[in-house]
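User: What would this chain look like folded?
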Amino acid sequence: MTSRTLGKQGLTVSAMGLGCMGMSDFYGPASEDEAIATIHHALDHGINFLDTADIYGPFTNEALVGRALRGRRDGVVLATKFGNVRAADGKFLGINGRPEYVRQACDASLQRLGVDRIDLYYQHRVDRTVPIEDTVGAMAELVRAGKVRFLGLSEAAPATIRRAHATHPISALQTEYSLWSRDVEADILPTVRELGIGFVPYSPLGRGFLTGRFRDDADLAPSDFRAQNPRFQADNRTRNLQLVDRVRAIAADKHVTAGQLALAWVLSRGDDIVPIPGTTKRGHLDENIAAVDIQLTADDKARLDAAAPIGAAAGDRYANMSTVNG
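Assistant: Here's the prediction, encoded as structure tokens.
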């Protein structure tokens, strides 16, 4: 596994990370034993960049990742997030970027993870009621206290990124990016590149849709978040499957899977980009890892641009888009 650098502050990670959210939440039931085995498998194969958040579970995913890292913490770049607030029963309570909450959330995450320092600490969503300078200022205090190494933002707009970065260097921006979510190419990617901030795409497989696995309602459990996602709804799904089938045809020509091709495309967008596909199974992880070695020709890229141009996907990324791009 090769490595890539996020930002200009010295954060080096594997070229692909592992998103751990689905091991505990949103995508239906998962085996914790297999999840931990998958994390260990990732570490054994050179993936050292693990991504979690306090709300996944809620709270239980950090504890799971912490258990998986017992005795294996050295060399792992551990990322977690704060800002989306949920009750213990899972109810969403809003977004909180107040300085006192930043400190409280960090201490709680450190305890659940069982570590004394978080490598990359993201504000999960921007709190529009709190100046970003106040939130990032509190995050910077955590760096000075030795509780956090590097700072990140998630789903932030260009003006917010600039103000945050002026307060304390931001090493990474995490935002959805894939063949069916390319809107960041207009303003967000140019902004982070101008500032020297790394980019961490989540859902680089379109929440699994780009693999071609989800073709009708029966393919999703009722408890799966995606069952209510606009892009998975019947009319949108029919249109989006046409996009997937175009990608699958190109993948077949290269003798790879559609998912591998989608990941290879994200990886090809720049050495400052580190995708974090999530999976709960070792077999799927092996398939993802193989994408790192896929080389795309200029013709491949042109065909993919034609198959999945900006704005090609039908439906919003979330049912409530007001919580992103703050």
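The CA atoms of residues 58 and 89 lie 8 Å apart. If you want, I can go into more detail on any region.
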